[in-house]
Amino acid sequence: MYSSTYRWLTFHRVHSCCHKTALGPLSSGIYTTSSPSTLSRLIYTHTFTVTHAHAAEPMAWTIIRSGPYIENLSQFMAPTIDTDETYLFKLPLDDGALHFIYLQDFRTHVHWAISNMEQSNGLDFGIATAHVAGRDIASSFTATTGMSARYVSLPIEVWHANTWMKLPRGVDTMVGFLSINDDGALLQTYGENFTNWWNLYKASSGNTGLMRGD
């Protein structure tokens, strides 16, 4: 079983981010072959090892495509409180939308796939708890808590400055710096990665754009 991104996305440079380009080739490899020897050639790092008990038999697989964790709304997407005590969800989303997944829902789908291998083997499917725009996040917050909330479309530069200020080099910190000491071996800064990540969801309004989820 593999949880990945949308293997079918053809990336324009403004949509290329580590979250997607790192996982897409791996899920494509799983999708196109069940041979461990062929799959190993499609994986560009020695971190991954693909094995199964009977090498001569096809490999069973399931790909589950998801979206951003809805738990992020209490982390790096958490609201701030304005002077009038209104909760502000300030996100660089414009009129786009996010297809959130709640981790408990994710667990339910994974449990089903493992428990029903005869049905899940060979499936490549996407899941989402809710496909929501910024204004939907604010209105749901108000409906649930009774507190005033508002969505503010934030310029990406401002969001970066607020979000990554504690990183060693701020927005210019390389993604993966905690695992690899050589910055030359890393591909994108946090600023480059998340600018393109948000671009994907800006182009996903109404569950009809680039990123979709049921």
Structure description:
It is a single chain. 33% of the residues lie in helices and 14% in strands. It is α/β, with parallel strands linked by helices and 214 residues long. The protein has one domain (2-207): UDP-galactose 4-epimerase, domain 1 (Alpha-Beta Complex). It has helices spanning 18-21, 24-32, 36-42, 103-115, 117-120, 134-145, 156-163, 190-202; strands at 2-4, 63-65, 80-81, 87-91, 97-100, 124-126, 130-133, 149-153. A three-stranded parallel β-sheet has the order 1-2-6, covered by helices on one side. Strands 3-4-8 form a three-stranded mixed β-sheet, with helices on one face. It has a two-stranded antiparallel ribbon with strand order 5-7.
Helices and strands in order, then pairings?
Elements: E1 2-4, H1 18-21, H2 24-32, H3 36-42, E2 63-65, E3 80-81, E4 87-91, E5 97-100, H4 103-115, H5 117-120, E6 124-126, E7 130-133, H6 134-145, E8 149-153, H7 156-163, H8 190-202
Parallel strand pairs: 1-2, 2-6, 4-8
Antiparallel strand pairs: 3-4, 5-7
N- to C-terminal distance? 20 Å
Helix- and strand-based class? Answer: alpha/beta
User: What is CATH's topology name?
Assistant: UDP-galactose 4-epimerase, domain 1
**CATH architecture name:** Alpha-Beta Complex
**Helix proportion range:** 25-40%
- Main sheet properties: 3 strands, parallel
Question: What is the fourth-level CATH superfamily?
Answer: UDP-galactose 4-epimerase, domain 1
What is the oligomeric state here? single chain
* Number of E-state strands: 8
Beta-strand share of residues: 5-15%
Mean pLDDT: 80
